[in-house]
Recover the amino acids of this structure.
């Protein structure tokens, strides 16, 4: 009968419970779901595509982008824990080594300014006071620590997502302004400009093949 170390089992449960959280804030899912939501608002269709479809699209693209990292990590984990899968020490060491591709992904896609900010802040925030002299000693912070990389990556992704959203909004705002001026010139002030501009927004988005451009751009933004 197969037996496993209870500590390994507990660690596994904790890791599994954190996976949804990590998938949301520490993968490409964050930027993708924000950008797709912004373009939906820019088009003026608040519920199309539905939230379920937006999240499903973000998850599919996230799996596509993160698949090489998961494969590398899983291969490393199997090699490092071969024959020692029931030992908590070997399992933990293997898991840490398997997470290195993920660390590289965070480093590659984090803004250096954000990383530097969180390092400086952590040195002060995590500082300790010497009980003898009362002197405050800055904490020694590793800039490659996950406690630094995850928030830096999260803020960096949100910044890039809103930059993309700003560029997406510009042509649609131009259409709204043009339609509003035309209706005003025609004396049709009682007609909602949104009702008239929506078909033109959709037409523009279809003509330029907007979904293809948007998705390809998001995927290629992680090629460095």
């Amino acid at each position: 009968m197969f037996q496993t170390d209870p500590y390994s089992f507990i660690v596994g449960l904790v890791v599994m419970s954190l996976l949804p959280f990590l998938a949301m804030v520490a993968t490409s899912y964050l930027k993708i779901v924000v950008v797709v939501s912004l373009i939906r608002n820019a088009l003026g269709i608040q519920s199309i595509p539905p939230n379920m479809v937006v999240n499903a699209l973000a998850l599919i693209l996230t799996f596509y982008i993160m698949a090489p990292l998961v494969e590398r990590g899983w291969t490393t984990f199997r090699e490092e824990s071969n024959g020692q899968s029931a030992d908590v020490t070997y399992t933990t060491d293997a898991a840490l080594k398997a997470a290195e591709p993920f660390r590289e992904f965070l480093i590659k896609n984090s803004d250096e300014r954000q990383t530097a900010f969180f390092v400086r802040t952590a040195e002060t925030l995590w500082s300790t006071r010497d009980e003898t002299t009362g002197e405050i000693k800055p904490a020694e912070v590793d800039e490659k620590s996950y406690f630094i990389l995850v928030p830096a990556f999260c803020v960096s992704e949100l910044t890039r997502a809103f930059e993309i959203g700003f560029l997406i909004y510009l042509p649609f705002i131009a259409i709204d302004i043009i339609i509003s001026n035309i209706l005003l010139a025609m004396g049709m002030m009682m007609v909602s400009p949104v009702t008239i501009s929506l078909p033109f927004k959709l037409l523009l988005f279809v003509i330029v093949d907007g979904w293809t451009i948007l998705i390809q751009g998001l995927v290629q933004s992680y090629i460095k």
